[in-house]
Amino acid sequence: MELILYMFETCPFCRKVIREIEEEGRDDIEYRDIHKNGEYRRELVEIGGKEQVPCLVIDNRPLYESDDIIKWLRDNPHR
Ligand SMILES: N[C@@H](CCC(=O)N[C@@H](CS)C(=O)NCC(=O)O)C(=O)O
Fold first, then answer.
1. Is the CB of residue 4 below 6 angstroms from any atom belonging to ligand 1?
2. 50-62 pLDDT, tens per residue?
3. Atom 12 (ligand 1): residue with closest C-alpha?
4. C-alpha closest to that of 33 among 44, 23, 22, 24
5. How far is the CA of 37 from the centre of ligand 1 (A)?
6. Which residue, by CA, sits nearest to atom 18 of ligand 1?
7. What are the Cα distances from residue 64, in Å, to 8, 19, 42?
8. Whole-model pTM?
9. Which residues contact 35 (CB under 8 A, 6 or more apart)?
10. What is the whole-number distance in angstroms between the Cα of residue 1 and the centre of ligand 1?
11. Measured between alpha carbons, how far is 34 from 48 in angstroms, rounded to an integer?
12. In whole numbers, what is the pLDDT of the chain averaged over residues?
């Protein structure tokens, strides 16, 4: 499964999600910082339809909302 988190560093909702990822000790998620890379920003809008972070893209399907992302992470632990 391909997991990509679109984010930027100072976004508090992103930090909340990243804290969860770190607490779970996951290494299966690629971070794409939309403030550091314009290509990532364009990708996010193309995949998700809006420039809102955090967005976890799960095999090309966008999941917005930090609480929903955290719930998904807990429901789908990395093995
Ligand atoms: N309710 C959302 C809020 C996310 C949010 O407001 N993110 C800000 C950055 S800190 C953003 O992307 N704003 C741009 C937009 O919503 O278009 C969540 O919990 O994920």
1. no
2. 999 999 999 999 9
3. 52
4. 44
5. 18
6. 65
7. 14, 17, 16
8. 0.97
9. 8, 9, 41
10. 25
11. 13
12. 97
CB 54 within 8 A of CB 14: yes
Distance, CA of 10 to chain centre: 14
What domains lie within the chain, and their CATH numbers? 3-75 (3.40.30.10)
Spatial contact of 6 and 32, defined as CB atoms under 8 Å apart: yes
Enter the tokens of residue 54: 């955090």
16 CB less than 6 Å from ligand 1? no
Kindly report the length of the chain. Answer: 79
Q: Whose CA is nearest to atom 17 of ligand 1?
A: 52
Comparing C-alpha atoms, which of 32, 10, 23 is closest to residue 73? 23
